[in-house]
Amino acid sequence: xxxxxxxxxxxxxxxxxxxxxxxxxxxxxxxxxxxxxxxxxxxxxxxxxxxxxxxxxxxxxxxxxxxxxxxxxxxxxxxxxxxxxxxxxxxxxxxxxxxxxxxxxxxxxxxxxxxxxxxxxxxxxxxxxxxxxxxxxxxxxxxxxxxxxxxxxxxxxxxxxxxxxxxxxxxxxxxxxxxxxxxxxxxxxxxxxxxxxxxxxxxxxxxxxxxxxxxxxxxxxxxxxxxxxxxxxxx
Length: 235
Fold this sequence. Notes:
Pfam families: Glycos_transf_2. One of its GO terms (molecular function) is undecaprenyl-phosphate 4-deoxy-4-formamido-L-arabinose transferase activity. The chain crosses the membrane at residues 208-225. Keywords: Cell membrane, Glycosyltransferase, Lipopolysaccharide biosynthesis, Membrane, Transferase, Transmembrane, Transmembrane helix. The chain is α/β, with parallel strands linked by helices. It has a single domain (9-127, 154-206), classed as Spore Coat Polysaccharide Biosynthesis Protein SpsA, Chain A (Alpha-Beta Complex), CATH 3.90.550. The chain has 7 helices and 7 strands, in the order E-H-E-E-H-E-H-E-H-E-H-H-E-H. It has helices at 19-35, 73-83, 100-112, 131-148, 164-172, 180-187, 210-227, and strands spanning 9-15, 40-46, 62-66, 88-91, 118-124, 160-163, 191-197. It has a 7-stranded mixed sheet. Helix 4 runs parallel beside helix 7 (210-227). The longest helix is centred in the middle third of the chain and has 18 residues, at 131-148. The chain is globular.
């Protein structure tokens, strides 16, 4: 959209070694928002990919933030959210697993309820690409319920909508940026989960493994230790 219009929606996309998928993602997002005549911006956060990530030449409202060092997907998302100019930002993955027409339901949930500052996607019809991933998802859900008492149906869904005021609240807090979803839920005044249909997975091979599961689990425990005095929903 024209640069002089403040974006109504910011879309934050973390990127690491998936340039071709990102190009398709940007084209689909821009096609949708242009047709709806909505002011938007797309913030692509390159988490120090070994191969240079380039935006499509025809991209109208996308910009690329290149991080000088690899910080991990969660912190990359936090950096993108802090750079967002709109009052509401949507995070999604570079393979665009949930179409814009569907993730806009998260935005509408925030617009229709002033008490909510976070709307989380929950993937319908999603099947894990490997037994390790399925086991990891179950284990992470159990750990979160045990440590935080959060009732999150789909912690692994990367498509979520958040108000800028919550992003600012997190930036001013002492909460870690990883896992970013835990940080946002912990600081939110109100949140909801909305079931969204998913597209067929286009990734040829999952990079999820036992080491990534272990790192995520340790990150959750570390977050719990750091966040004990800041959690509003912890009981």
